[in-house]
Amino acid sequence: MATRKQSESVLEAERTKTKPPPLFKVLLLNDDYTPMEFVVVVLQKFFGMSREQSTRIMLKVHREGVGVCGVFPRDMAATKVELVTGYAREHQHPLACVMEEI
Hints:
The protein is an alpha+beta fold. It is 42% helix and 21% strand.
């Protein structure tokens, strides 16, 4: 009776390192028409900021022309931009919100 000897080889899974998804900054741009209070409301509503935090960023946008609202993966950043832009248009404000890769 012949016996087969099975070779003892261990299969090891190759480990591939996946890169984390690219991140994007969501930015608000200053304009001469959108009321400051509206910008504060937008920051609270869409970015979950406190009133104090929102006011700080609103003032930065007002003084420097641009302010960072948050950093997110691409899909989330794009959604935030769409929501903010749509909300601003609904309220007839020209508030611009854009995203920029880090």
